[in-house]
Amino acid sequence: MSAEAGTLIKGPSRWALVVGAACLLLCALGWFFNPRQFFISYLFAELVWVGVALGCMAFLMIHYLTGGTWGWPVRRFFEAAARTLPLLGLLFIPIFFGLHLLYPWAMPARVAASAALQQKQFYLSVPFFIVRAVVAFAIWSWLAFLLSKWSVEQDATNDPAPMKRLRKLSGPGLVIYPLTVTVVFVDWVMSLEADWYSTMFPILICIGQMLSGLAFVILLLAWLGPRTSLAEILGKENFHYLGSLLLAFTMLWAYMSFSQLLVIWSGDLPHEISWYLHRISGGWRWVLTFLVLFHFFGPFFLLLSRQMKQTRRALATIAGAMFIAHVVDVWWMVAPSFYPQGLHVSWMDFAALLGIGGIWLSFFARNLAAQPLVPMNDPRFAVAAVKI
Questions:
Q1: CA-derived radius of gyration, the chain
Q2: pLDDT for res 384
Q3: What angle do CA 135, 52, 22 make, to 5 degrees?
């Protein structure tokens, strides 16, 4: 048990659980009065926190493969986030009861009026949708379980065998991750609009998930690092490495986002263009402006500065802004499919985000407190006690 982490996060963890439970109760009332809006908000919130957990698991596997010193002080954060995937699978179950309110392919009247939906009916069906979601969460939970189990085993022995198993799993795991995300996010997000599709979209989702996971972990490291045993191995260079990764994924996200728009717009593809037209009409254009400024331009220019990346508070501020921007990005991907005429914000959007987020953060904190924050007996870090 990590007493140091447990002491620091015990109070915030309890408050997160209380706030999360209260917000989910409010959402339950919203379900009674406006079920369609409830499912829209709940889907958006679930996608945000699933993305954080998956992004952290992807970075964990990258760290095991590369062995970079950037991952040494944040490995426990990645592990704790990945182990919340079974919880997120359980929290996803309510969405199964609202498919007929969310997806055109689950609405008989819409299917009868659309030749495109009729052609997709075999694949886009309620039973098949549920099976794919269950299988995806089972695979992710299995990967997270093995990554955590063998990490604990490595802490207890000098034998490098657990680390070898972790590396052997991480290679295939980094192939499984984008493949499974492609399958389920076509279901969960792309199929919200009957005629829209993009081959770049699933990769853009993966990049956004990793960006949000990294931003979340940087925030925690900036808060907990100097107050715990991580301070012994934590220096300015660690934040510099993480800031450089944040910059790299910021540029990659912007490149993929622009490439998707460029291909669709220059190709004059009417069905695909409609997806963007929904998201630049009315008040949605201001959301897009916010994303351009705070999801790319602002962080990009600030992270070019070495001093910014090495300064703990400055980097945490940038990471916090990017995490908020990513939440808005997920909302911008989901909400305009239901409100194409203009900007629409519901109190249930905030309640669902805080509800699922509060429960998730409470379980994350419990996972984090279950192990020492400094990983032990990693054969690649024999001199890890020396401050970087």
A1: 21
A2: 44
A3: 95
